[in-house]
Amino acid sequence: MSDRSVENIDRRRFLKLTGLSAGGLVLGATLPGWQPSWAAGLDKGGELNLFVSIDGDDTVSIVCHRSEMGQGIRTGLPQVVADELEADWQKVKVVQGLGDKRYGSQNTDGSRSVRRFYDTMRRMGASARTMLERAAAERWNVPAKECAARNHVIIHIPTDRRLGFGELAAAAAKQAVPDEKDLRLKDSAQFNYIGKPVDTVDTPDMVTGRANYGQDVHLDNMLIASIERAPVLGSGIAKLDDSAARKVRGLVAVERLDGGAEPPLFKPLSGVAVLAHNTWTALKARKLLNIEWTESPHEQHDSDDYLETLKDNVRQTGKTAVAEGDVDIALETASRQHSAIYTLPYLAHATMEPPSATAVVGEEGCEIWSCVQDPQSVQQHVGQALGLPPEKVKVNVTFLGGGFGRKSKPDFVVEAALLAKNAAAGQGGLEPRGRYSPRLLPRCQRRLLPGRTRRTRQGGRLAAAHRLPLHRRHLPARRRSPGQF
User: Fold this and answer.
1) Which of 12, 51, 275, 316 has the most CB atoms within 10 Å of its CB?
2) Quick one: pLDDT at residue 443?
3) Nearest C-alpha neighbor of 86 from the set 182, 150, 164, 134
4) Distances 161 to 115, 164, 305 between C-alpha atoms, Å
5) What pLDDT digit, counting tens, does each position of 335-389 carry?
6) 3-class DSSP state for residue 394?
């Protein structure tokens, strides 16, 4: 296994990390009993905080708690930690965090990872560095202020004595967590990695096929599920004839998925799942299902009619979200105005890698492997579906072959978990289920003032009223043919 493969670590023993963040950052970690491919070879070392641990061989393991979908976040956030830690980047190993509320938000959506966690990652690196410096000071019986981290070693400045991070790891892990007021963050002029080019750690595995994505997960005796979907949201199963499908060699089971009350949110939709030992058998048997679907009130949904409804709604007075100045007066006194309605159609969140999940359900809880953007949401909704507390749902995050927000919605993982519970085996879910972003119609009015150009970026004078419809409802559109995504 490459050092840059996705690795997952579990956090069970913990002490509260005080003075650093209200987001639930904690001390302590233990590794899981087993993890297929991701955590193999990750040895327990000096655990300095929730994000940093150091092995005796000098390897620094830095946790990335956000999902990697090609944007490079498994490089960006550890890069910040490593800089404040004064670690040698060539000795850094990136490990993928499990779903855990103690990390704070893990919803990797909206381009917020660095913006939200930049300061936190700096503090994690500085905290670990401080603990290493204090451990070295105790070893040498000198004041801690005489010790400084430099490129993976701690130096006693007056005598130039040196100790490597690995030599100090165990002693540093026993140090008290430093208070935030005692942390010394670097000046920007001292940065080694922040704001500087660093090779993306996962690129070699991604371009050589070694990276593990959602459908790369394979467990012993697992089953593959392929789901025939209702053609329209709200349809149910009126009649099912699966006799032909059951004649396919290798078929294990046929399971109904009954859609819940609307709105569906992240609940399973109506469908029939075919379970088999391999993908080919599951797809072949699914095509032989003979299903009659109930009628749905959404059969008559018409996108053009809905567009006209939205246009009528957007012309009505909406709620004020942000008020700066008096837009109404500015518009009333304008000699010239421009008004326009802009429309966006339904957009399918169609990722190159279809949503996929593997689930194992047992007496102790549920374990998930999936290409998800928000593992804590998976814990919550899978737990609700199975009647388990969220902490009993263990979520291993694989690489994502694109996300676009679609994989922050855990409905496909809930379906895999329910099928696993019914079949008492692991289910690899092949999900021909798409989601659409809602139609959006902002109406904009602008007051045009003479002597200024609308294209200027500085000093331009524009009075604008942005009115969004009160109900940006995602009314159901007709779904694609089953199997398309």
Assistant:
1) 51
2) 61
3) 150
4) 38, 10, 77
5) 888 888 888 888 888 889 999 999 999 888 999 999 999 999 999 999 999 999 9
6) strand
Question: Which strands form 356-362's sheet, in the order they lie side by side?
Answer: 251-257, 271-276, 223-229, 427-430, 356-362, 365-370, 393-397
Cα distance between residue 401 and residue 294, in whole Å = 35
Q: What is the pTM of this model?
A: 0.79
Q: Which two tokens stand for residue 248?
A: 């396919």
| Whole-angstrom distance, CA of residue 327 vs CA of residue 462 | 10
* CA 95/CA 61 separation, integer angstroms: 7
Complete DSSP assignment for 93-119: EEEEEPS-GGG------SS-HHHHHHH
- Quote the CA–CA distance of 284 and 421 in Å, as a whole number: 23
Element (H, E) at 412: helix 411-423
Q: Could you tell me which of 96, 91, 94 has the C-alpha nearest to residue 165?
A: 91
**Is the pLDDT higher at 215 or at 23?**
215
Task: Show the tokens assigned to 191.
Answer: 């940065």
Amino acid present at 322: V
Burial class of residue 86, CB neighbours in 10 A (0-12, 13-18, 19+): buried
Tokens of 466: 């942005």
Sign of CA dihedral 240, 245, 247, 250: negative
CA 245 from centroid of its chain's CA atoms = 36
What is d(CA 38, CA 419) in angstroms, rounded to the nearest whole number?
24
The label of the residue with tokens 């540093």 reads 172
Residue with the two structure tokens 């090779």 = 199
